[in-house]
Amino acid sequence: MMMARRTMRRMVGATAWPWARATRSLSLSAINDNRIIMSPPLVTLDLPEIWTPPDSHDCNPLPQRNCSNLQTATVIDGKSIAEEIRSGIDKEVRRMKESIRKVPGLAVILVGERRDSQTYVRNKIKACEEVGIKSIVTEFADGCTEDEVLNALSNYNQDSSINGILVQLPLPQHLDEGKILDAVSLEKDVDGFHPLNIGNLAMRGREPLFIPCTPKGCIELLIRSGVEIMGKNAVVIGRSNIVGLPTSLLLQRHHATVSIVHALTKNPEQITSEADIVIAAAGVANLVRGSWLKPGAVVLDVGTCPVDDPSCEYGYRLMGDVCYEEAMRLASVITPVPGGVGPMTVAMLLSNTLDSAKRAYGFT
Length: 364
Description:
- It comes from Citrus sinensis (Sweet orange).
- This is Bifunctional protein FolD 1.
- The protein is α/β, with parallel strands linked by helices.
- It has helices at 2-29, 78-100, 115-131, 146-158, 177-182, 195-202, 213-224, 244-253, 268-272, 324-328, 341-361; strands at 74-75, 105-111, 134-140, 164-167, 233-237, 257-261, 277-280, 298-301, 305-308, 316-319, 333-334.
- The strands form 3 sheets. It has a 6-stranded parallel β-sheet with strand order 1-11-8-7-5-6. Strands 3-2-4 form a 3-stranded parallel β-sheet, sandwiched between helices. It has a two-stranded antiparallel ribbon with strand order 9-10.
- It is globular, with a radius of gyration of 22 Å.
- α2 packs parallel to α11 (341-361), α3 crosses α11 and α7 (213-224) packs across α11 (341-361).
- The N and C termini lie far apart (53 Å).
- The chain is built from 11 helices and 11 strands.
């Protein structure tokens, strides 16, 4: 029995580690080819599920946390990285226009007057203009009917000049969010929220047409920052369909060991403090304090919590889920708010829209 275990461990080492080196090589080599996004196709990340039995079931006590060597985290400039990606998209859009006289088209549906949603839509439309993507916005009042939204979606589904459709979330409570998202054509679901896209993201051996933009942006930030994902302990704080759930699925596809902390988790601080990678997406300002973090952890703050501030242009400012000042003294790498994950979300939306147009027009 012991001989069999040793043999299995040797087999795992012989197959897994060469694959890991090949994956790192693939990610780095992407800089030298025509791809805009460095993340490899998900199917190429799939590995056989071979477990290595432990030599002993005895557990060692957790070591004491050593916070004596406090540091200053490296700040990931999401804005700069997003600009690099958008530059590549701009070149591809111009090449498409010159070659086939077509450009990608994005339609956005905005319901209600939430200030944060209005800001997000403004940023997305501005980004489309900067890279040459055509954009259309349909706005509805808070009290609009479900049929009004569904009719607009139906028109966009049938419009061949529209390659991507985005419904800005959250929607007012009287609207059935699931029904509305299901009505978006799968081939135009550039937000990646269609159940078939989420299902294919979750299943090994499957490739979704689109990966949700914020999770995709988080992985792209990690890869471009040289953060190893495979084999690391990752905690996702929040389990929304928009960010938390797809982020946890995507991290698993990249072979992280993933825990999800949510509002009913009994010991969120303890769980998070053991993570190598923390992705905070709860939408609660300053929820994650320094005591939640292991020294040297990688921290991506997805939180965008609007806080009233008359001195700002739109009367409010955005704060993250992570207490930035405390986290800076413990984390090895961190994203700011704003200027971290947010610009990457927009860049991934543009990337998904471009991919959709290429697929629809057979453009390579």
